[in-house]
Amino acid sequence: MQFPEEIHFPSLQDAPALENAYSIAMQKGGVGKTVTAICVAAAVARAGRTTLLVDMDPQASATIYFKYLLKAPITESMYNLLVEGKPIKPIKLGRYVSLLPAHVDLAAANQLFAALPTTRELPNRVLARALAPYAPHVDYIIIDCPPSLDLLTKNALTAARYVIIPVSTEEMSEDALPNMLNTVQDVRRDLRNGNNPTLEVRCLLPTLHSAREREANSTLARIHEEYGKDYCIYPPVLRKTKYKKAVSQSVDVGSLDPELAGYWNEFTATMIFQESQVAP
Ligand SMILES: Nc1ncnc2c1ncn2[C@@H]1O[C@H](COP(=O)(O)OP(=O)(O)OP(=O)(O)O)[C@@H](O)[C@H]1O
Ligand SMILES: [Mg+2]
What we know:
7-stranded mixed beta sheet, 10 helices, alpha/beta, Rossmann fold
Protein backbone atom coordinates (compact mmCIF):
# COMPACT_ATOMS: atom_id res chain seq x y z
CA MET A 1 0.00 0.00 0.00
CA GLN A 2 1.53 3.27 -1.14
CA PHE A 3 0.39 6.53 0.38
CA PRO A 4 0.95 9.72 -1.60
CA GLU A 5 3.70 12.13 -0.58
CA GLU A 6 1.45 15.10 -1.20
CA ILE A 7 -1.87 15.10 0.55
CA HIS A 8 -4.79 17.44 -0.10
CA PHE A 9 -7.72 17.62 2.25
CA PRO A 10 -11.24 18.44 1.08
CA SER A 11 -13.31 21.03 2.92
CA LEU A 12 -15.44 19.85 5.85
CA GLN A 13 -18.56 20.26 3.70
CA ASP A 14 -17.06 18.08 0.97
CA ALA A 15 -16.01 15.22 3.25
CA PRO A 16 -18.70 12.54 3.25
CA ALA A 17 -18.48 9.22 5.08
CA LEU A 18 -15.95 6.82 3.58
CA GLU A 19 -17.50 3.76 1.93
CA ASN A 20 -14.64 1.49 2.99
CA ALA A 21 -14.49 2.64 6.63
CA TYR A 22 -15.73 0.65 9.65
CA SER A 23 -15.80 2.06 13.16
CA ILE A 24 -15.59 -0.27 16.12
CA ALA A 25 -17.51 1.59 18.80
CA MET A 26 -19.09 1.12 22.22
CA GLN A 27 -18.86 3.59 25.08
CA LYS A 28 -18.51 0.86 27.67
CA GLY A 29 -14.84 0.16 28.47
CA GLY A 30 -13.04 -3.15 28.08
CA VAL A 31 -15.55 -4.88 25.81
CA GLY A 32 -13.04 -5.87 23.14
CA LYS A 33 -13.14 -2.93 20.70
CA THR A 34 -9.38 -2.79 20.22
CA VAL A 35 -9.03 -6.57 19.97
CA THR A 36 -11.82 -6.61 17.37
CA ALA A 37 -10.15 -3.85 15.33
CA ILE A 38 -6.82 -5.71 15.38
CA CYS A 39 -8.30 -9.15 14.64
CA VAL A 40 -10.28 -7.76 11.71
CA ALA A 41 -7.21 -5.99 10.28
CA ALA A 42 -5.26 -9.25 10.58
CA ALA A 43 -8.01 -11.27 8.87
CA VAL A 44 -8.23 -8.70 6.07
CA ALA A 45 -4.45 -9.11 5.67
CA ARG A 46 -4.73 -12.92 5.55
CA ALA A 47 -7.11 -12.43 2.62
CA GLY A 48 -4.40 -10.38 0.87
CA ARG A 49 -6.15 -7.03 1.24
CA THR A 50 -4.95 -3.86 2.89
CA THR A 51 -6.11 -2.04 6.03
CA LEU A 52 -5.45 1.36 7.49
CA LEU A 53 -5.97 0.99 11.24
CA VAL A 54 -6.95 4.33 12.79
CA ASP A 55 -6.45 4.78 16.54
CA MET A 56 -9.02 7.32 17.77
CA ASP A 57 -8.54 6.50 21.45
CA PRO A 58 -6.36 8.84 23.58
CA GLN A 59 -5.52 5.72 25.66
CA ALA A 60 -3.77 4.61 22.45
CA SER A 61 -4.41 0.91 23.15
CA ALA A 62 -4.18 -0.13 19.50
CA THR A 63 -0.94 1.82 19.10
CA ILE A 64 0.52 0.36 22.29
CA TYR A 65 -0.58 -3.13 21.21
CA PHE A 66 2.02 -2.97 18.44
CA LYS A 67 4.84 -1.59 20.58
CA TYR A 68 7.11 -4.57 19.88
CA LEU A 69 6.79 -3.99 16.14
CA LEU A 70 7.57 -0.28 16.19
CA LYS A 71 11.09 0.35 14.95
CA ALA A 72 11.27 4.03 15.92
CA PRO A 73 9.56 6.27 18.47
CA ILE A 74 6.27 7.74 17.29
CA THR A 75 6.73 11.41 16.44
CA GLU A 76 3.39 12.23 14.85
CA SER A 77 -0.09 11.01 15.58
CA MET A 78 -3.81 11.61 15.11
CA TYR A 79 -3.56 14.87 17.06
CA ASN A 80 -1.27 16.35 14.41
CA LEU A 81 -3.54 15.14 11.63
CA LEU A 82 -6.84 16.21 13.17
CA VAL A 83 -6.04 19.32 15.17
CA GLU A 84 -3.11 20.74 13.20
CA GLY A 85 -4.33 19.50 9.81
CA LYS A 86 -0.86 18.07 9.17
CA PRO A 87 -0.64 15.04 6.85
CA ILE A 88 1.01 12.21 8.77
CA LYS A 89 2.68 9.11 7.43
CA PRO A 90 0.98 5.84 8.42
CA ILE A 91 3.28 3.39 10.24
CA LYS A 92 3.71 0.18 8.30
CA LEU A 93 3.02 -2.77 10.61
CA GLY A 94 3.34 -5.35 7.88
CA ARG A 95 2.77 -5.81 4.19
CA TYR A 96 -0.98 -5.28 4.48
CA VAL A 97 -1.57 -3.22 7.60
CA SER A 98 -0.66 0.40 8.35
CA LEU A 99 -1.47 2.38 11.47
CA LEU A 100 -2.37 5.99 12.14
CA PRO A 101 -1.30 6.08 15.79
CA ALA A 102 -2.77 7.89 18.80
CA HIS A 103 -1.22 9.66 21.75
CA VAL A 104 -2.78 10.89 25.00
CA ASP A 105 -2.81 14.46 23.62
CA LEU A 106 -5.72 13.38 21.38
CA ALA A 107 -8.05 13.86 24.40
CA ALA A 108 -7.78 17.64 23.87
CA ALA A 109 -9.48 17.28 20.49
CA ASN A 110 -12.83 17.00 22.25
CA GLN A 111 -12.66 20.65 23.29
CA LEU A 112 -10.64 21.88 20.33
CA PHE A 113 -12.92 20.61 17.52
CA ALA A 114 -15.76 22.69 18.86
CA ALA A 115 -13.55 25.76 19.35
CA LEU A 116 -11.05 25.97 16.47
CA PRO A 117 -11.98 28.10 13.44
CA THR A 118 -10.80 25.27 11.16
CA THR A 119 -13.12 22.66 12.68
CA ARG A 120 -15.93 24.29 14.67
CA GLU A 121 -18.20 24.72 11.67
CA LEU A 122 -18.82 20.94 11.46
CA PRO A 123 -17.00 19.44 14.46
CA ASN A 124 -18.17 15.86 13.76
CA ARG A 125 -16.65 15.84 10.27
CA VAL A 126 -12.99 16.44 11.14
CA LEU A 127 -11.97 12.77 10.87
CA ALA A 128 -13.88 12.26 7.61
CA ARG A 129 -11.96 15.17 6.10
CA ALA A 130 -8.64 13.95 7.50
CA LEU A 131 -9.06 10.39 6.18
CA ALA A 132 -10.37 11.33 2.74
CA PRO A 133 -6.92 11.46 1.08
CA TYR A 134 -5.88 8.11 2.59
CA ALA A 135 -9.04 6.17 1.75
CA PRO A 136 -8.39 5.53 -1.97
CA HIS A 137 -5.05 3.89 -1.13
CA VAL A 138 -6.39 1.08 1.08
CA ASP A 139 -9.06 -1.58 0.79
CA TYR A 140 -10.41 -1.00 4.31
CA ILE A 141 -10.18 1.57 7.07
CA ILE A 142 -10.82 0.24 10.58
CA ILE A 143 -11.32 2.86 13.30
CA ASP A 144 -10.81 1.94 16.96
CA CYS A 145 -12.92 4.23 19.18
CA PRO A 146 -12.46 5.35 22.79
CA PRO A 147 -14.83 4.08 25.52
CA SER A 148 -17.04 7.14 25.44
CA LEU A 149 -19.69 8.88 23.38
CA ASP A 150 -17.55 11.98 22.99
CA LEU A 151 -16.65 14.00 19.93
CA LEU A 152 -13.91 11.52 18.99
CA THR A 153 -16.44 8.67 18.77
CA LYS A 154 -18.90 10.91 16.96
CA ASN A 155 -16.18 11.76 14.45
CA ALA A 156 -15.51 8.05 13.94
CA LEU A 157 -19.22 7.41 13.37
CA THR A 158 -19.42 10.32 10.94
CA ALA A 159 -16.39 9.16 8.94
CA ALA A 160 -17.52 5.54 8.55
CA ARG A 161 -20.13 3.89 6.40
CA TYR A 162 -20.53 1.10 8.98
CA VAL A 163 -20.23 0.57 12.70
CA ILE A 164 -19.60 -2.69 14.53
CA ILE A 165 -20.70 -2.62 18.17
CA PRO A 166 -19.01 -5.07 20.57
CA VAL A 167 -21.13 -6.01 23.60
CA SER A 168 -19.64 -8.05 26.42
CA THR A 169 -21.84 -10.90 27.65
CA GLU A 170 -19.79 -10.89 30.85
CA GLU A 171 -21.37 -7.83 32.38
CA MET A 172 -23.89 -5.93 30.36
CA SER A 173 -25.12 -2.66 31.77
CA GLU A 174 -28.74 -2.00 30.89
CA ASP A 175 -28.26 1.41 29.35
CA ALA A 176 -24.96 1.03 27.46
CA LEU A 177 -26.35 -0.43 24.26
CA PRO A 178 -29.47 1.80 24.06
CA ASN A 179 -27.25 4.87 24.54
CA MET A 180 -24.85 3.66 21.87
CA LEU A 181 -27.68 3.02 19.40
CA ASN A 182 -29.20 6.43 20.18
CA THR A 183 -25.88 8.04 19.38
CA VAL A 184 -25.85 6.23 16.02
CA GLN A 185 -29.30 7.73 15.36
CA ASP A 186 -28.11 11.19 16.44
CA VAL A 187 -25.12 11.02 14.10
CA ARG A 188 -27.43 10.07 11.24
CA ARG A 189 -29.53 13.20 11.80
CA ASP A 190 -27.27 15.81 13.36
CA LEU A 191 -27.10 18.33 10.50
CA ARG A 192 -25.68 21.11 12.63
CA ASN A 193 -22.47 19.27 13.53
CA GLY A 194 -22.03 17.39 10.25
CA ASN A 195 -24.20 14.30 10.06
CA ASN A 196 -23.81 10.92 8.35
CA PRO A 197 -27.16 9.64 7.08
CA THR A 198 -25.44 6.63 5.49
CA LEU A 199 -24.15 5.19 8.78
CA GLU A 200 -25.27 1.59 9.19
CA VAL A 201 -24.93 -0.76 12.16
CA ARG A 202 -23.22 -3.73 10.51
CA CYS A 203 -23.68 -5.96 13.54
CA LEU A 204 -23.70 -6.25 17.28
CA LEU A 205 -20.80 -8.46 18.27
CA PRO A 206 -21.14 -10.31 21.60
CA THR A 207 -17.67 -10.55 23.15
CA LEU A 208 -15.75 -12.07 26.06
CA HIS A 209 -18.30 -14.88 26.05
CA SER A 210 -17.91 -17.88 28.33
CA ALA A 211 -20.24 -20.51 26.87
CA ARG A 212 -20.17 -22.56 30.08
CA GLU A 213 -21.44 -19.74 32.28
CA ARG A 214 -25.17 -19.54 32.77
CA GLU A 215 -25.17 -15.78 33.32
CA ALA A 216 -23.29 -15.20 30.06
CA ASN A 217 -25.68 -17.43 28.14
CA SER A 218 -28.70 -15.65 29.52
CA THR A 219 -27.15 -12.27 28.62
CA LEU A 220 -26.55 -13.55 25.09
CA ALA A 221 -30.16 -14.78 24.86
CA ARG A 222 -31.35 -11.37 26.07
CA ILE A 223 -29.32 -9.55 23.40
CA HIS A 224 -30.98 -11.75 20.76
CA GLU A 225 -34.42 -11.22 22.25
CA GLU A 226 -34.15 -7.46 22.56
CA TYR A 227 -32.12 -6.59 19.48
CA GLY A 228 -32.29 -9.58 17.14
CA LYS A 229 -35.28 -8.22 15.25
CA ASP A 230 -33.60 -4.96 14.31
CA TYR A 231 -29.92 -5.84 14.14
CA CYS A 232 -27.61 -8.58 12.94
CA ILE A 233 -26.09 -10.31 15.96
CA TYR A 234 -22.95 -12.21 15.10
CA PRO A 235 -22.01 -15.46 16.93
CA PRO A 236 -19.98 -14.47 20.02
CA VAL A 237 -16.24 -14.00 20.41
CA LEU A 238 -15.25 -16.55 23.06
CA ARG A 239 -13.23 -15.57 26.11
CA LYS A 240 -9.82 -17.24 25.70
CA THR A 241 -6.55 -16.62 27.51
CA LYS A 242 -4.74 -16.62 24.16
CA TYR A 243 -5.99 -13.05 23.58
CA LYS A 244 -3.81 -11.88 26.49
CA LYS A 245 -0.86 -13.88 25.16
CA ALA A 246 -1.34 -12.23 21.76
CA VAL A 247 -1.12 -8.74 23.34
CA SER A 248 2.11 -9.64 25.08
CA GLN A 249 3.64 -10.51 21.69
CA SER A 250 2.15 -7.67 19.58
CA VAL A 251 0.49 -10.23 17.31
CA ASP A 252 -3.13 -10.93 16.49
CA VAL A 253 -4.64 -13.97 18.19
CA GLY A 254 -5.17 -15.69 14.84
CA SER A 255 -1.44 -16.15 14.42
CA LEU A 256 -1.37 -18.15 17.70
CA ASP A 257 -4.43 -20.29 17.13
CA PRO A 258 -5.81 -21.53 13.78
CA GLU A 259 -9.30 -21.98 15.21
CA LEU A 260 -9.43 -18.36 16.32
CA ALA A 261 -7.99 -17.31 12.95
CA GLY A 262 -10.90 -19.23 11.41
CA TYR A 263 -13.42 -17.34 13.55
CA TRP A 264 -12.03 -13.93 12.53
CA ASN A 265 -11.67 -14.96 8.88
CA GLU A 266 -15.34 -15.90 8.85
CA PHE A 267 -16.32 -12.72 10.68
CA THR A 268 -14.38 -10.62 8.20
CA ALA A 269 -15.74 -12.46 5.16
CA THR A 270 -19.34 -11.92 6.25
CA MET A 271 -19.21 -8.55 8.01
CA ILE A 272 -16.47 -6.70 6.11
CA PHE A 273 -16.20 -8.30 2.67
CA GLN A 274 -19.95 -9.03 2.87
CA GLU A 275 -19.42 -12.22 0.91
CA SER A 276 -21.90 -14.47 2.69
CA GLN A 277 -24.75 -14.39 5.17
CA VAL A 278 -24.39 -15.08 8.89
CA ALA A 279 -25.45 -18.57 9.84
CA PRO A 280 -28.85 -18.40 11.58
N1 LIG B 1 -12.10 -12.77 23.67
C1 LIG B 1 -11.29 -12.41 24.65
N2 LIG B 1 -10.83 -13.31 25.54
C2 LIG B 1 -10.02 -12.94 26.55
N3 LIG B 1 -9.59 -11.70 26.74
C3 LIG B 1 -10.01 -10.74 25.89
C4 LIG B 1 -10.87 -11.04 24.80
N4 LIG B 1 -11.13 -9.89 24.14
C5 LIG B 1 -10.46 -8.92 24.78
N5 LIG B 1 -9.78 -9.42 25.83
C6 LIG B 1 -8.97 -8.69 26.80
O1 LIG B 1 -9.85 -7.80 27.49
C7 LIG B 1 -9.23 -6.53 27.67
C8 LIG B 1 -10.08 -5.47 27.00
O2 LIG B 1 -10.06 -5.67 25.59
P1 LIG B 1 -9.94 -4.45 24.61
O3 LIG B 1 -8.78 -3.59 25.00
O4 LIG B 1 -10.00 -4.94 23.23
O5 LIG B 1 -11.30 -3.70 24.99
P2 LIG B 1 -11.73 -2.22 24.60
O6 LIG B 1 -13.20 -2.23 24.48
O7 LIG B 1 -10.95 -1.75 23.44
O8 LIG B 1 -11.27 -1.43 25.90
P3 LIG B 1 -11.28 0.18 26.06
O9 LIG B 1 -12.72 0.52 26.23
O10 LIG B 1 -10.46 0.42 27.29
O11 LIG B 1 -10.70 0.75 24.82
C9 LIG B 1 -7.84 -6.66 27.08
O12 LIG B 1 -6.94 -6.96 28.12
C10 LIG B 1 -7.93 -7.82 26.13
O13 LIG B 1 -6.71 -8.49 25.97
MG1 LIG C 1 -9.79 -0.05 23.21
